[in-house]
């Protein structure tokens, strides 16, 4: 593998790439940077890119009619972020994607992504597994908000992703958990 490249490392976890495949993948992704508090995507725009976070932290969220933000994703190093609905349909996004920290990314355009899947069948396998896992995680999160207590959701997040609490403002964590910042403060005091 090319110099222990993180993107290739994660792709090779679920598929087996040749050296030629790895070279083509690295050529298809372009580096991007986004500063803290800057937008990668604004609601109403088409999401033209799929992003792999090499370093940093981002969030995707929508703002309701009352102006309240609802966080859908919090992603950090070695994770993907995008609005897949907009990316695949090429329709305007309902979400914003904003950097929580200065972030370094690798991005691939929709057109190049589709070409790469044809060129490298193993990559299609990787993304099928990735998207299946993302779908299952989204359903699990939806089920948790319906059937688990806020304390249970907080405890699970703390257990599964403790680094989030070191890097993400608590107001964003509260929104992600579907609770108020005040409720999160009470829960944290009880732990």
UniProtKB/TrEMBL annotation:
InterPro entries documented for this protein: cNMP-bd_dom, cNMP-bd_dom_sf, RmlC-like_jellyroll
Domain of life: Bacteria
Pfam families recorded: cNMP_binding
Record's signal peptide: none
Transmembrane segments: none
Domain spans labelled Cyclic nucleotide-binding: 13-134
Stated name of the protein: Cyclic nucleotide-binding domain-containing protein
């Amino acid at each position: 593998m090319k110099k222990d490249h993180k993107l290739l490392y994660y792709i090779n976890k679920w598929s087996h790439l040749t050296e030629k495949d790895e070279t083509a993948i690295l050529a298809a992704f372009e580096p991007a940077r986004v500063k803290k508090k800057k937008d990668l995507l604004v609601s109403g725009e088409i999401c033209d890119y799929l992003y792999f976070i090499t370093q940093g932290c981002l969030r995707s969220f929508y703002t309701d009619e009352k102006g309240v933000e609802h966080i859908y994703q919090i992603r950090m190093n070695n994770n993907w972020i995008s609005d897949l609905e907009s990316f695949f349909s090429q329709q305007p996004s309902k979400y914003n994607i904003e950097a929580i920290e200065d972030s370094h990314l690798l991005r691939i355009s929709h057109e190049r992504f589709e070409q790469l899947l044809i060129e490298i069948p193993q990559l299609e396998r990787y993304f099928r597994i990735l998207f299946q896992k993302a779908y299952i995680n989204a359903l699990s999160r939806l089920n948790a908000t319906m059937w688990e207590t806020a304390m249970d959701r907080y405890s699970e997040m703390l257990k599964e992703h403790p680094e989030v609490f070191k890097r993400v403002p608590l107001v964003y964590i509260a929104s992600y958990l579907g609770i108020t910042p005040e409720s999160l403060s009470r829960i944290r005091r009880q732990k």
